[in-house]
Amino acid sequence: MRRAVLTLGGTVAGLAALLSYKTHSGAAVVSAVGTPGTSTATSAATAPASTGPASATPSASAKAGHSDGAGGSASARTITGTVANTQYGPMQVQVTLIGQKITKVTVLQRTDTGSESDEIDSMAIPQLTSETLAAQSARIDAVSGASYTSSGYIQSLQSALDKASA
Fold first, then answer.
1. How many domains does the chain have?
2. In sequence order, what DSSP letters do the residues of 15-35 get, joined into one string?
3. pLDDT tens digits, 52-102
4. Which CATH number goes with the domain that contains 129?
């Protein structure tokens, strides 16, 4: 009887610990590009994905005249991440920053192994983009059912953010 009580208690404690586990901590930041907790509500969350090739070198655009929150104007920079090769094809993203704030994420290349990949990408990429704009970093959750797409997106995004902070 005593074993049954201990087993049941251990199971309940383990289940409670599992259910209370948080995947993100508020203080953790993967890159020096953004601040956790800040969010951006822009139409970039539903940016269309294109499948054309792109260069993997960062480029800067002209002065945008937008405020970066520090009282001055900052220029918009567009940085292209490296191509992340996944089991189902390449993933590559491009990030637009104004100051240190991610304002837009565009997918330049996406997985391309048929209609199933298209269906998965059309569901996952808007979610990944929305999470990126909310998190202001590459520390985002993968989309369930789109593991390879999520992994490639996050790898390419992190490389773009690394280039931006260099």
1. 1
2. HHHHHT--S--TT--SSTT--
3. 333 333 333 333 333 444 445 678 899 999 999 988 889 999 999 998 899
4. 3.90.1010
